[in-house]
Amino acid sequence: MEDIRFCPEHGYYRGEKCEKCNRKGEIILDKERVERLGRFVSGILRHFPNRFRLQMDENGWVDFDSLAKVVSRKYRWANKWLIKAMVYSDKKGRYELSEGKIRARYGHSVDVELNDYEPAENDILYYGTSEEEAHRLLEIGIKPVNQKFVHLSTTIEKGIEVAMLRTDEPIILVVDAKKAREDGIRFIKANEFIVLSKEIPPQYLRLIEVE
Ligand SMILES: [Zn+2]
Fold this sequence. Notes:
Layout: E1 4-7, E2 11-14, E3 26-29, H1 31-46, E4 62-63, H2 64-74, H3 80-89, E5 95-98, E6 101-104, E7 124-129, H4 131-140, E8 150-153, H5 156-164, E9 171-176, H6 177-182, E10 188-189, E11 194-197, E12 205-208
Bound molecules: zinc ion.
The site of zinc ion has 7 residues, from loops.
């Protein structure tokens, strides 16, 4: 995690210097607090809105003010402004804010449908995994385990990055999204790098070796 700083010209950003003007802005939130705040907010929006009696609709939206109240009860230093700074500076596009509501863009284990997402147009997608897992998936297809959706990568590099969290020898499965889409499988765009789908049957998968 990195500190969140503020550039008077370009707004909130993560890291030492503003990428757009190379100036060093003032620290708004230090990295330990960014980590704690992020873990709590993403935990609520992905996994446990009910624990705090927050209403979530089928598209994952929660009232922003209500969430901010829950957050500032847990962390007295937190407030709406800091939550927004965290959302807008997040490099992974984890959150979305709109019309007084907030949601996670991906990672849900709660029961959501995400019907208002844009469809993903990619013809090819990637799924990074370990070797033993890859062979199993080629037989049974990719199904969500702890999550509601399967998370696919839009580039090989991102697929490798995901796989590296679990193994030193990443294997990449290629998803023929074009064919799957023609056959009625829904793909939705979480952000630039992540595409979600309910399940990918094995006939759309093939394996490529990573050097
Ligand atoms: Zn700047």
